[in-house]
# Entry
Amino acid sequence: MVLLVIHSRFVSAQWIEVVTGYPFYFTDATFYDELNGVIVGNESLITTHDGGNFWTKLQFDSIDFVEVIFTEDSTMYSIASLSGPSHQILRSVNLGDTWISLNPIPAGSSSIRSINFINPDTGMVAFEHFLYKTIDGGDNWSEIWGSGGFLTWFNLVGQDSIKMLQTNSFNGYIYESTNGGGNWQNLNFNDDLELLFETNDQPIDFSDWNHGHFVFGNYYYSTDGGVSWNGIPYYYDQGEETDFQKIECPSDSVCYVMALNIPYAPIILKLLNHGETIIKTDFPDIGNGGVTSLHCLNDTFCYVTTSNGRLFVTKNGGGVVAITETAQNDFPFSFYPNPAIDQLHLSFNFMQGNKTFATITNLMGVQLLSEPLNASDPVIDISILPPGIYFIGLKTDEGSEVNKFMKQ
# Structure
């Protein structure tokens, strides 16, 4: 593959900072429509009903909000951590102006992670090690998952359809349930996911039951519900490889990603058609703050909160700083056998004096092997790899290409 970079500027399409007047630590935000929105954070919650021109603050002593969501009829739910090993779930039926506390969930000392409702009655709340479900708007809760692993992410795709990512210190598993959590199916196993086990980032998003989008350093997508994943070439910003950390996909063809390239500030990328086109949006430098949440109402209306109390909104896709296209060129390569046992033999158009490197990564993009190739005998020893599915990539001065293989 070859990277084609086109630089351009669009003055009218960009991220606009919405000044709230309350610069506390923003942890999450949600908008019901372009007028009504809520931002939560440390001991505070603010609401707007005019698109962000005026905000009202509600003070909650000793309560640190984690996440806030709207349901289809404008009912709102929020989860919060209290002082000590405790938590609180709150509900609003008037677009966030007043809140009531719901019955607590008996999750012990586990930290509260995330909340998701498919309608005003049916929802779930995730803790570090537990997943609870309600069918009466949060008055009563039942445990539908409990384990020693960390519930890094979950999504209530339908009334009884759930996707979930569980990680521990060594690996990760993607599960699904089609009967509301009564039974679970392990879709696949992915190693080297330990960096995700203590995060409230958004590492996965399913635009529907079959189409999944995953970020772990880079971007990966699935068209079979999460059983198998395909990746795109790594993205480089200012000459350095970036780390994709948060993802939001308002549709299967459009995803927004928050990426980091330390020491530079976070950037927001717009991925089209599973990464065939990557647009670096005109997201501003946020100084010492970090991006705490990224959400979208549709393909063009998105909003971002930061740790230093700032809100940024775009209504037309975020503008364009640069466009990266991934396209096929005249640098294909083949290899055999596939499946392989101990070695991969490669065949490609090798130009004399042109350095060629081969890298092998797992499904999550973690690099496992990297070595230069011998022009006369391009062979890679894969005997140390455990059985599984991997990506092999070749990179030369001419370009790069990635293919998938199986190790038996």
In short: The chain has two domains: 15-249+285-315, 333-407. Residues 15-249+285-315 form a domain with the Methylamine Dehydrogenase; Chain H fold (CATH 2.130.10.10).
